[in-house]
Amino acid sequence: MHEDGYLEIKDRSKDVIISGGENLSSVEVESVLYGHSAVNEAAVVARADEFWGETPCAFVSLKNGLKEKDLPTEKDIVEY
């Protein structure tokens, strides 16, 4: 936090998510999400998981102006 009250975020703490002994690249998962026609922005981070150690957690924003029928559900994005 800066003296003037602004919070500076430089980058995520790491780009590798270790899930069940497999190394997953958060950048690669984001790249796949950007391939979806409705995705405007995507950010993937590690989320703690008791069984897997970590699992990917995606934060996704959709493009503006999509028609109701073209809006993907959370399930649509996960299956993509």
TrEMBL record:
Family matches, as Pfam families: AMP-binding_C
This protein's name: 2-succinylbenzoate-CoA ligase
Alphabetized GO MF terms: ATP binding; ligase activity
Family under the similarity heading: Belongs to the ATP-dependent AMP-binding enzyme family.
InterPro entries: AMP-bd_C, AMP-bd_C_sf
PANTHER family: ACYL-ACTIVATING ENZYME, ACYL-ACTIVATING ENZYME 8-RELATED
Organism of origin: Trifolium medium
Keyword DNA repair: no
Annotated ranges, domain AMP-binding enzyme C-terminal: 28-79
Keyword annotations: ATP-binding, Ligase, Nucleotide-binding
